[in-house]
Amino acid sequence: MTRTVVVTSGKGGVGKTTTSASFASGLALRGHKTAVIDFDVGLRNLDLIMGCERRVVYDLVNVINGEANLHQALIKDKHCENLSVLAASQTRDKEALTKEGVEKVLGGLSELGFEYIVCDSPAGIETGAMMAMHFADEALVVTNPEVSSVRDSDRILGMLASKTKRAIEGGEPVKEHLLITRYNTQRVHQGEMLSLDDIQDILRIKLLGVIPESESVLQSSNQGVPAVHMKGADVSEAYKDTVDRFLGEEKPLRFVNGYKPGFFKRLFGGN
Amino acid sequence: MTIAVQGVTPDTFEIKSATLPLVALVLKSADLDALARELEARFGDIPDFFDHDALVVDLSRLESEAQGGEHQAVDFPALLELLWKYRLAPVAVHGARNELAAVAKAAGLFPAPDARIGTAAAREANAEVVQKVVEPEAATGALVIDKPLRSGQQVYARGRDLVMLAMVNPGAEVIADGHIHVYAPLRGRAIAGARGNVDARIFTLGMEPELISIAGLYRTGETPQLAAIRGKPTQVRLVSDAEGNRLVFDPLK
Fold first, then answer.
1. What pLDDT score does B25 carry?
2. B140 vs A112 pLDDT, higher one
3. In a 3-state reduction of DSSP, which class is residue B96?
């Protein structure tokens, strides 16, 4: 059975593509045959994060339009054997995505034996985002600890519950997971960022994981290596925990209580 | 009901009977400027009050006032434009006689002498300009919603109360013609008595709204009255006395 997972947020720049890359890689590392699709037609970022930008020949829109088949368009990831990437088209716009076309692609991937299909949604609530979520079985809602991101995630949750195929056909609702990214315990402690409780109070869906804010994400993005592969980094561990929880394991949250007062604070106290 | 004509079933179409709920606009004056002003006062702050409801323009009042005398000329194209602005879809006229009916027809409104228009409310002293032809059934009770209302979502309990069992998030909107009960935090907008019911009230277990309105009188979330009861169980009601109309926020015990 193929499970389709959309990675979405509403707001831009919260870490959807970073998450898609690391989450899909994490599933593949656990031995699941996984495909990750970039729905951000017209912008195309996922291939950069995955480090396969020079190997893109055919893309999602080519497959939808029947100009290429899935075999030609799927790019094998260089880090995980079980992972394939379907890039977005840079030269088209999101109107090129149709429900029928997307359904055909997802159906094709299912026939090829993929267990998980990760759909990297573009920001916003327009065609691209709607297409990415339409056929989803589960959703990772990526949220930063700040009010505008939380509100946009709230909007997206409303759409998942009303605009997706499962919602329209009245089946079992899309399973929603909350993933909080760029979480900085120190700034939360200082009241500059929303805490986990604040976010949960508004969104009230199950928390799947917390990814700490880290310099290494930028580094890994620029090198085209998904953050989950950064050996020993907090971010990598946090993504691996997230994947494990997604696959049904119980794991305690890490990197959420790491507030360490500075040297002078410890010396002189303070508030 | 399918109407078959002489036993031949055409491939391309079927004629079926259908009915359409209508709202009626009982026009009491042909002065469109005055009408525009009053519509603005009544619905200006809720531009999506109507949801492309089909509308019949009732001209019988104008006709009876013009009894024997001259008609007030109605500028139908301007009237249509005004109604479209409020998301109303005028389709017909009622109670128009020859000349007025002809002008209306020229503007695209077909004559509907058979339309049954509710009359009770029209006789009240402060009769509303617009009334429902088909009144919602009296026994429907409250509209109950048990899922959270998220940013961008809206619920309207037309002609009845609204009971929310889950939270109303920032950016969401709950509207009712009657009371609004929210047995969870109210963080979005709440509009009770949307069609002018001044007795409507709003109840919530956690008062943190973006906006509160009863019968058109509103307060934003920054009103000082809210400071003391923010996040607490609260009731809001509209009080009219010597000091004028105001919203009163009382803690619920």
1. 87
2. A112
3. coil
Bridge-based pairing of strands B154-157 and B130-132 is unpaired
pTM as predicted:
0.68
Give B223's Cβ-side CA count (13 Å radius): 19
User: Residues A49, A18: contact at Cβ < 8 Å?
Assistant: yes
Task: Provide the shortest C-alpha distance from residue A156 to chain B (in Å).
Answer: 8
Contact call for B152 and A202, based on CB within 8 A = no
Distance of alpha carbon B214 from alpha carbon B200, whole angstroms: 7
What pLDDT sits at residue A49?
95
What are the DSSP E strand ranges found in B201-243?
202-207, 211-214, 217-220, 234-241
Contacts of A148 (CB under 8 A, 6+ apart): A11
A154 vs B147: CB contact, 8 Å cut-off?
Answer: no
Q: B9 phi and psi, to 5 degrees? A: -100, 115
Contact B171 A151 (CB under 8 A): yes
What residue of B is the nearest CA neighbor of A162?
B153
In chain B, which residue ranges form alpha helices assigned H by DSSP?
32-43, 60-65, 76-85, 98-106
User: How many CB atoms lie under 10 A from the CB of residue A5?
Assistant: 24
Residues 6+ apart with CB under 8 A from B240: B198
Query: Which residue in this structure is represented by tokens 């009163």?
Result: B248
Is the Cα dihedral B217, B222, B225, B226 positive or negative? positive
Residue-wise DSSP of A58-85: S-HHHHHTTSS-HHHH-EE-SS-TTEEE
Parallel/antiparallel/unpaired status of strands B244-251 and B234-241:
antiparallel
d(CA A106, CA A97): 13
Q: For B22-61, how does the pLDDT look when each residue is reduced to its tens digit (9 = 90+)?
A: 888 888 888 888 888 888 887 777 767 788 888 888 888 8
The ipTM assigned to this model is 0.73
Q: Do B150 and A152 touch (CB under 8 A)?
A: no
Q: Measure the CA dihedral A123/A126/A130/A133, to 10°.
A: 10
Concatenated DSSP letters for A207-264? EEEEEE--HHHHHHHHHT--GGGSTT-HHHHHHHHHHHHHTT------SSS-----HH
For residue B102, name the pLDDT band (cuts at 50, 70, 90). Answer: confident
Q: Give the tens place of pLDDT for each residue, A222-245.
A: 999 999 999 999 999 999 999 999
DSSP letters, A102-160, are HHHHHHHHHHTT-SEEEEEPPSSSSHHHHHHHHT-SEEEEEE-SSHHHHHHHHHHHHHH
Closest alpha carbon to B230 in B253, B204, B203, B208: B208
What does DSSP assign to residue B132? E
Outline where B107-234 has alpha helix (H): none
CA atoms within 13 A on the CB side of B168: 33
Interface size between A and B, measured as CB pairs under 8 A: 30
